[in-house]
Amino acid sequence: MQEIQLKVKCTNKEARKAISYWLIRFQKMVAIWVYVSCPLNFLVGVLALCFTGERNAPIYHVSFWWFLAFMHLLSYYVIPLGYQLRTYRNRQMIIYTFSDDHIATWSIEVESKISWPFLKKAHETPAAFLLVDSQDFVHIFPKRCFENETDLEAFRALLERKLDMLPMKRGRRAEKA
């Protein structure tokens, strides 16, 4: 197999969309907390405000439920998103060389090799490939970095051979990623 070489420098917008897409779509606990628990806690707080007959109790109940919703959103979505975005903001251009044996990376700061077993999953969105390592860090490879369609197809085939490649999602949300 030929080696595939990519020069990657993600913009803040690309990184935010890709990481957010990964967190919401594939981290099940994040999706549960963001789409179910947070609105439910907010709603319980509003109901406590509306239907509690005591004078001081409504503020306490509302504050508790809204605080709980905020903490879940913060801990499951905002903090992981911010951590990964900080990492991408500090990155320089990285050159990746993909082969059947390993992935070689080179940048001004560091040169290293990544073995395929270190990566857990791969996912394709309309705008990028997302590779998730064993530490749940999302590596983003925008499709604009590929020189031609042949390299794109070869990369897709390599990921299907080496990793658990998740299918591309269709629809409005996927188009944004």
Helix/strand/pairing class, anyone? Answer: alpha+beta
Spans with pLDDT under 50 lasting ≥5 residues?
Answer: 170-177
Share of helix, binned:
40-55%
Radius of gyration over all CA atoms, rounded: 21 Å
**How many H/I helical runs?**
5
The helix-strand sequence is EHHHEEEEEEHEH
Chain oligomer state: single chain
Please indicate the percent range of residues in DSSP E strands (runs of 2 or more): 15-25%
Q: What is the residue-mean pLDDT, rounded to a whole number?
A: 80
Shape: elongated
Write a structural description.
Helix 1 (12-26) crosses helix 3 (57-89). It contains five helices and eight strands, in the order βαααββββββαβα. The relative contact order is 0.18. It has helices at residues 12-26, 28-51, 57-89, 149-162, 172-176, and strands at residues 4-8, 94-98, 102-106, 111-115, 119-124, 128-133, 138-142, 164-166. The chain has one domain (1-177). The chain has 177 residues and is of the alpha+beta class. The strands form two sheets. A four-stranded antiparallel sheet has the order 1-2-3-4, covered by helices on one side. It is elongated, with a radius of gyration of 21 Å.
